[in-house]
Amino acid sequence: MHGSPISDLVPILTAARVELETVSVAGDRRTLCMGPGFFTSYRRNLIRSDEILVSLILPWTCEEQHFVALKQARRRDDDIAIVNIAVNVIFEHQSHKIKYLDLAFGGMAPTVVTAPISSERARGKEWDSDLVEIVSDALANELPLDPGAPGGMILYRRSLTLSLFFKAFLAISRDLKRDIAPDEISGADNFCTLPPKSTQTFEKIPDKQEPWNPIRRPHVHASAFKQATGGLCFWTVFYQSSEFFFHISKRNRSAYLDSLSCFCDFVKLWNLGC
């Protein structure tokens, strides 16, 4: 529950107004809404130090509801967000008029923030291109960044709040089968992650190379398959018949080893042809 302002999940939970059930050391239970006002400062929230999180209560969705979450990062996979957004919108029954809109942003403040002013201006509006102008103007004023804000890239991050909302607008418009300009349709698409491929090459072994020489002879080590498939347990079994190399160095030129347990052989640098 550290509540990082660039978390991938926290903006989603905030826009969804998820309820958190906590219990204190004394056994007192209470329920908090993870919405506006939940985060008080950087990685601080309304949960007290004597409380722990017991459960998350996810609100029921409805037929007129659409939810989109987007993230901009430097890499496509396994990277922290520069700015991310979660858009939760509910329409009036059998219409495209906004009944409820909640926007949550990460990367724009010391905490994940909402945009209540922008949401309120969008209430009752039709889901069309005019809405983009209304919300964009409101967001530009509601989510400013100080020139000295941590993380830098001030203008870029401010522009991301607008472009990510526009991308979410296009995605929801496509779900609603609303008319989208031909040159903007691709903006609703997400990246398609292709299956990873790899190639392993081997150097040809010279005919004169001795059979005992391991150079250019790739051997699968004991943990290779488990490492490649995610099933590796990080502990090592040393078999009695196995031998291992260890580098030995000394700080004092006159120092010497009196004894060394399990010693098999000593190999000097020039023995290796170096």
Chain-wise SSE layout:
Blueprint: H1 10-15, E1 19-24, E2 29-33, E3 39-41, E4 44-45, E5 51-57, E6 65-73, E7 81-91, E8 98-106, E9 113-114, H2 116-122, H3 129-142, H4 154-175, H5 224-229
Antiparallel strand pairs: 1-2, 1-5, 3-4, 6-7, 7-8, 8-9
InterPro entries: Ald_Oxase/xanthine_DH-like, CO_DH_flav_C, CO_DH_flav_C_dom_sf, FAD-bd_PCMH-like_sf, FAD-bd_PCMH_sub2, Mopterin_DH_FAD-bd
GO molecular function: flavin adenine dinucleotide binding; iron ion binding; oxidoreductase activity
Protein name: CO dehydrogenase flavoprotein C-terminal domain-containing protein
Fourth-level CATH superfamily of one domain:
CO dehydrogenase flavoprotein, C-terminal domain
CATH class of one domain: Alpha Beta
The geometry reads as elongated
- The tally of beta strands, per DSSP, is 9
Structural class by sheet pairing and helices: alpha+beta
Q: What is the number of helical segments per DSSP (H or I, 4+ residues)?
A: 5
Roughly what fraction of the amino acids lie in strands?
Answer: 15-25%
> Helical proportion?
10-25%
Examine the coordinates and then state which fold CATH places here, giving the name of the CATH topology of one domain.
Enolase-like, domain 1
Cα-to-Cα separation, first versus last residue: 55 Å
Largest sheet: 4 strands, antiparallel
Please give the radius of gyration in angstroms.
29 Å
The assigned CATH architecture of one domain is 2-Layer Sandwich
pLDDT < 50 runs, ≥5 residues? none
Instruction: Report strand order across the widest sheet.
Output: 6-7-8-9
Pfam families: CO_deh_flav_C (PF03450), FAD_binding_5 (PF00941)
GO molecular function, one term: oxidoreductase activity
Protein name: CO dehydrogenase flavoprotein C-terminal domain-containing protein
InterPro entries: Ald_Oxase/xanthine_DH-like, CO_DH_flav_C, CO_DH_flav_C_dom_sf, FAD-bd_PCMH-like_sf, FAD-bd_PCMH_sub2, Mopterin_DH_FAD-bd
